[in-house]
Amino acid sequence: MEFTTVGVVGAGVMGVGVAQNLAQTGHQVILVDVSEEVLDNARRELRTSLRAFALFNRAAAVDPAAVIEKIEFTTDYELLAKADFVVENVTEDWSIKEKVYEQLDRILRPEVRIAVNTSAISITRVGSVTGRPQNIVGMHFMNPVPMKPMVEVIRGHHTTPETIDTARRFLAGMGKECIVVEDVPGFVSNRVLMLTINEAVFLVQDGVSTPTDVDRIFKTCFDHKMGPLETADLIGLDTILKSVEVLYESFNDSKYRPAPLLKKMVAAGLLGRKSGEGFFSYR
């Protein structure tokens, strides 16, 4: 296997999904986060996710204990020195990401590629804080990671064709295909999706419709599996808000201004599935 050991930085929803997918496809995984509390929660989330994967994929033989055994949970970034490839999944906050990349650039071998799992942060900007901008590539995984066959891959200004080829092989080893796009804020998927979700929040805020009926229109009229507000709850309203704010700051275009209701819900701790309540209740 070309990528025997893979570092996964960030043990939130996306990091756990990436780690699970990698372990299920035979990779040794080093899952790093800043606290034991976060890692303990990641173990619980992983067990729940593996049970759900087995339930919806009865044909696939999944041994949850064997999958978890392939993942090393740690707060020690130095262990990433043995990684052949790294997928970074920390929160969409530049001040946090910048410090993470300074560490990764110091610890990783020079030839190691780093995938930025982001929905909005510029890949070129990430590359600029490292000594290896040619080895930085964007990978926008969709949630839940093990269930989604396609990944949006983003080419930064300095990303080389060799790094794009490496990214394709890496994703093929996870059982996934990719679509390569250029590095603009929001890329393709989030530039459309975040605008749609934000406008759906405005519709609820303005009393035009209820969350249930907004989503029913998309599911019954357009045959979407999920409506925009159910999708927002799945992604996390805090993540949605950060992504919309990045788009607003990047384009200086008022069409991306965050809905006040979205800000209010995040301030109230109504983050969607992860908190048990968002536009819908999960308790």
TrEMBL record:
Signal peptide: none
Residues annotated as binding NAD(+): 10-15, 33, 92, 97, 119, 143, 274
Ranges where the 3-hydroxyacyl-CoA dehydrogenase NAD binding domain occurs: 5-183
Annotated site (Important for catalytic activity): 140
Chloroplast keyword on record: no
UniProt pathway annotation: Lipid metabolism; butanoate metabolism
Gene Ontology BP, a term: fatty acid metabolic process
Span of domain 3-hydroxyacyl-CoA dehydrogenase C-terminal: 186-282
PANTHER family assigned: 3-HYDROXYACYL-COA DEHYDROGENASE FAMILY PROTEIN, 3-HYDROXYBUTYRYL-COA DEHYDROGENASE
Protein name per its UniProtKB record: NAD-binding protein
